[in-house]
Amino acid sequence: MAKALLVHPDDSVVTLVEPVLAGDAVTFDGRSTSALTDTPSGHKIAIMPIVAGAPVVKFGFPIGTATAAIAVGAHVHSHNLATALDGTLAYRFTPKAPAPTREPEETATFEGYVRADGRVGTRNEIWILPTVGCVARTATRIAAQANAALVGDGADGIVDGVHAFTHPFGCSQLGDDLDGTRSILAALACHPNAGGVLIVGLGCESNQIDALLREIPEARRPAIRTLVTQLAGNEIDEGLAKVAELVALARSQRSTVALDRLVLGVKCGGSDGLSGLTANPLVGRISERVVAAGGSVLLTEIPEMFGAERLLMDRAVDESVFDGIVTMVNDFKRYFLDHGEPVSENPSPGNVAGGITTLEEKSLGAVQKAGRAPVSHVIPYGARVGGRGLTVLEAPGNDAVSCTALAAAGATAILFTTGRGTPLGFPVPTLKIASNSALATRKPGWIDFDAGEVLDHGFDPVAQALAMHVCAIASGAATAAERNGEREIAIWKRGVTL
Q: pTM of the full predicted structure?
């Protein structure tokens, strides 16, 4: 007898928590049926007859259309279910009463670095940002030697580390494409987790340091140093000297602050059929707590909202925010269509193997990461968060690109859910949350938290444990990615290359 999850009373399918063989009984919501075929964990079986052409319902919403008649107990997947997504849509603003959200955790605090502008960092690091790919290795060498000399064994440890964030762009770019690269780097240079920043340039690149500095507020300039390697004698020595200056300036102590000072990014990657049922709604409960406490949550991956965008539009705090979500969703769909690609070209092969069939299904699970929080702001790619509450940020679904955008926008920690697993880490502490216990057991070097526990213990105690873990990470406890030295950025490349 195998267990399955019924998400909504109106659903025509359930999701298996464990694999079943043909003829096995499947139990859900006090009922049972028999599986007609061998079906893996995370995949769906029908609990009512579905005629060809009818919608298949999960999360209480259609996740596509049946391409053949589906019998009770049959495996529902790519062989008999297809997306119904097609092109841009028109939407109408209809104000609704706000959904109830979690009460704030008044006693929840973390130990953060309070900056002069009032923002709070979860780390106190020196970041090295190359303007162009030509000096990426130079930036990496400076960071490695600075770590050994300034924060390695025997040093006084006044900063948490020196990190270079390299990329291949910054030259042979034009217009909006170059502007996007510059905006992301300028935003990272302003991040509260960086007590100081060294910007390393070549000298002849399109992404000139002077233009980059113009996007950095004057108040931030004392924590910035620059190095033009074509003009330097020994660029490594000069870079080390500038990092030493920044380390001296960055001396700071952690202070106790409340959750209203946390800026949380939420992301899913390598998802499976359980991601939208365990890990994502669990993160959603944390998002609600942070927003209720007066903090900020950033939600992105716009293509992974297609089919579920109305859930967010219905929670817009006003018509201007609603219009912002509509514009962002439709512009992203046009981006696909203008490149000759269908808007439904998702899920990935790994998602499909894990049980996700259509983009509608993936999106309905993905937006769970925001919980029921109202949407307060909408900001473009490369912009920085400007207010508290839930913000929708423009960025694609790609893990590295979207997490870099979250960090650049000001996220001081990222909750990253996964059903398949990934080792990637990003500029800010990235807490990996497994959707299933098998992954958490198999990959303890990647995973920080097991959301599969909700299947045995329910959401409330597991959400409380995750909230405590988030506060510990924000206070300095290392994530698995940090212990593994996984620190990457990726910039969204959209234009021509000269």
A: 0.95
